[in-house]
Amino acid sequence: MNQIINHLLKSKNIFLATHVHPDGDAVGSLIAMGLAVEALNKKVTLYNENVLPAVYRFLPSINRIVQHANAENDYDTAVILDCGNLGRIGRLHSAIARMPVIINIDHHVTNTGFGDLQFIDTSASATAEIVYRLIRKMGLPISKDMATSIYTGILTDTGSFRFSNTSRAAFDICSELMGLGVDPYDVAQHVYGTYSLGRIKLLNLAIDSIEISENGKLSVMTLYQRMLDETGTHSEDIDGFIHYAKRIEDIKVAVLIRELSGGKNRPPDSRYHVSLRSDGTIDVSEIAASFGGGGHFSAAGFNIDSGIADVKKQIFKLARVI
Ligand code: 5GP
Ligand code: MN
């Protein structure tokens, strides 16, 4: 931690980035860390390649995050947050790999240990918790903006203090953040309270798509690009849907298969993202890693280049070993 702080103090122009299809922890960690480094009078760029989920747009400094950046600029340091590997940043990852110093701040068990300096704590409830520790260690005051961002990261990564990563530290930090001006009701209203009509209709299609393995232990939800088009929604609207598949009784592993839009060079039905959630008895990070992805014990994911019939075949095979 001291080495990271010493390096940040020496840096002048810092690039901060987090993973594609960002969740609350990715967005919250990015903003809080960005504002902290800026408070040290550094030039900062906050980057994420995707459109940010509507539910996080209430965060006060959300507009500081840019979707396009020139990674060839004179950055002396890259701070990568909530990414198990550098590729999780998306298309800029090889340009970022060439930056002089890379700092890796994360809590995924599958973190590859990339970069020059690491602060990886797999017992942290969220990357935002690690960011909180760094800010405290730097002796910086935590503004209300930073506090709300860190709180949102911990709230969402612990599934509102329901998942097994919910710790005393998570409660202690959130209690302190409340003292710094965070309004839990207001955050919850934004993050969980508001759904667009399109999102509700998409949820209906997602629930309707659920299939259960023969042994009743695996549930699979499938979302195709055309469903998003029909309901006028975007991939960010899918966030949280998998919990409906996980809540079904006797389910040990829930799977959400999402078609990734082809883009110019890829035909439809050729690439999917697979999200995995377990009831806490199965290590889905291992399953994801075997497909080239990663994550946590109970929540993980991977991308797969194949047609839906083959993807489903491979997924349903997993039911035999759970
Ligand atoms: P999600 O289901 O939201 O895609 O991801 C669940 C967890 O797995 C998150 O912590 C996410 O960072 C991780 N994850 C998802 N996809 C990948 C992937 O392709 N590679 C790695 N290393 N981690 C992933
Ligand atoms: Mn996280």
Describe what this molecule looks like in 3D:
By secondary structure, the protein is α/β, with parallel strands linked by helices. The chain folds into 2 domains: 191 residues, inorganic pyrophosphatase (n-terminal core); 125 residues, Diaminopimelate Epimerase, Chain A, domain 1 (Roll), CATH 3.10.310. It is 37% helix and 18% strand. The chain contains 12 helices and 12 strands. The strands form 2 sheets. Strands 3-2-1-4-5-6 form a 6-stranded parallel sheet. It has a 6-stranded mixed sheet with strand order 7-8-9-10-12-11. Helix 2 runs parallel beside helix 4 and helix 4 packs antiparallel against helix 5. The longest helix has 16 residues. The model has no long low-confidence stretch (mean pLDDT 96). The structure holds guanosine-5'-monophosphate and manganese (II) ion (MN). The site of guanosine-5'-monophosphate has 16 residues, from strand 11 and strand 12.
Describe the structure in brief.
The protein is of the alpha/beta class. 37% of the residues lie in helices and 18% in strands.
List keywords for this structure.
322 residues, alpha/beta, inorganic pyrophosphatase (n-terminal core), Diaminopimelate Epimerase, Chain A, domain 1, 2 domains, 6-stranded parallel beta sheet, 12 helices, binds guanosine-5'-monophosphate, binds manganese (II) ion
